[in-house]
Write a structure and sequence with these properties.
Low-confidence stretches: none
Radius of gyration: 29 Å
Order of helices and strands: HHHHHHHHHHHHEEEEEEEHEEEHHH
Length: about 400
């Protein structure tokens, strides 16, 4: 340690023989060497070869990229890993490099070192990247794809309409183009992670005769013990808790059904195709599960409807006591995701029976798991002109 102490003493001593010019020039030269070395190291970590040196990156994302137009196309221009995932702006680039230090921990602890682990984390990783792209207004994309340089005449009429509207607002590319370079996560089986983070998993205990709302689409059962599913309880459905046993609750659901077949689909109200629950045929025919009351005929369709009350069991998890958090989440999702490609219709612009067809035409252009799809559709129906007294 003696040499280190001597070095420190030398560096801390006042200069006796060097001129101010010598010190300044030396500092300037050392600064150039340091800055050059820093940028050389930075650029070395900013290459495709460096990115795919990690096995989990080479075996999954890199292989997926090679199957897309970003890898091979008629223009011969290829996007590499850093082109999309490292911001071009210097300050944002440094911030991204610091953020990427968490990837080193993931590599060290082998978080995604197998195909199974990678798929389990794909939705989480993709969501994080989509959020970053949205935060930066997809600047990485716009480094190559400039709205001002687009040849509108070579686009289809539909593409022109959508892209010109996006150009007017300088819209983030990832709003409509998720999955353009890598395989999309399995959104169909995801359980709305952002929704659950927003509203929670529900109370730990329930009060009998009190109403609650399902925060996810949930399986229903005929008793508290069986594992045989008797149907599904739709998201944002109002129920009354009758009894609690272990991890399950017995609930009563009021609604209407069409007098067709076993009448196993339960709707929110008379003449309104807003789903509350669907029972398996055997469950709908089970004595005591569905209690029927008065019948009415729908003048629009000629179908007969019956008011019913359904008594079933479901898991206690993912039930909340107020519906407003669900509506808030659905409203924000609708306004930020469903309306990015065109002008947004007001919720009350259509009636409850028109919205499902309109909404199903939208979701082909966005990425939503099934729970979020069902919730947003129910939100639109619940806040449609059928229930909002406005002129349209």
């Amino acid at each position: 340690m003696k040499w280190l102490i001597n070095l420190w003493q030398t560096l801390t001593k006042p200069v006796k023989y060097l001129t101010l010019g010598t010190v300044s020039i030396s500092a300037f030269i050392m600064g150039i060497i340091f800055w050059g070395g820093f940028n050389t190291a930075l650029e070395a970590t900013n290459t495709e070869q460096f990115c795919i040196s990690c096995h989990s990156m080479e075996s999954k994302p890199y292989q997926e990229l090679q199957k897309t137009v970003h890898w091979k196309n008629h223009s011969g221009v290829r996007a590499t890993c850093p082109d999309c995932h490292v911001p071009h702006n210097w300050s944002r680039k440094i911030a991204r490099k610091i953020e990427a230090s968490s990837d080193v921990w993931g590599w060290f602890f082998e978080t995604v070192n197998t195909s199974e682990k990678f798929e389990n984390k794909r939705l989480e990783m993709a969501t994080r990247e989509w959020t970053r792209f949205e935060r930066d207004d997809s600047l990485a994309c716009k480094g190559c794809h400039d709205y001002k340089s687009m040849d509108w005449e070579n686009m289809s009429k539909l593409a022109q309409k959508q892209m010109k509207r996006a150009a007017d607002t300088d819209q983030s590319c990832v709003d409509c183009h998720k999955g353009i370079a890598h395989t999309l996560p399995d959104m169909g089986t995801a359980r709305a992670p952002e929704l659950i983070a927003e509203v929670g998993t529900g109370p730990s205990s329930f009060n009998n005769k009190q109403t609650y709302y399902s925060a996810l689409t949930k399986p229903i059962f005929l008793n508290e013990k069986t594992d045989v599913e008797a149907g599904t309880l739709n998201v944002a459905t109002k129920v009354e808790v009758l009894e609690t046993k272990g991890s399950r609750i017995k609930v009563a659901l009021k609604g209407w059904r069409k007098q067709i077949g076993a009448g196993r689909v339960i709707y929110y109200d008379f003449g309104i195709n807003m789903l509350s629950a669907q029972l398996e045929k055997y469950a709908a025919e089970e004595e005591g599960v569905i209690i029927g009351f008065e019948e009415k005929e729908d003048d629009m369709t000629g179908l007969k409807w019956q008011r019913v009350e359904v008594t079933v069991w479901t898991e206690a998890a993912y039930m909340i006591d107020k519906p407003q958090p669900l509506w808030d989440y659905a409203r924000d999702t609708f306004r930020t995701s469903c309306s990015v490609c065109h002008s947004q219709p007001d919720e009350a612009h259509f009636d409850a029976n028109t919205w499902p067809g309109m909404f199903q035409g939208m979701i082909a252009f966005v990425n939503m798991d099934q729970d979020t799809q069902a919730l947003v559709q129910k939100y639109l129906q619940q806040h449609s002109s059928t229930f909002v007294k406005e002129e349209h």
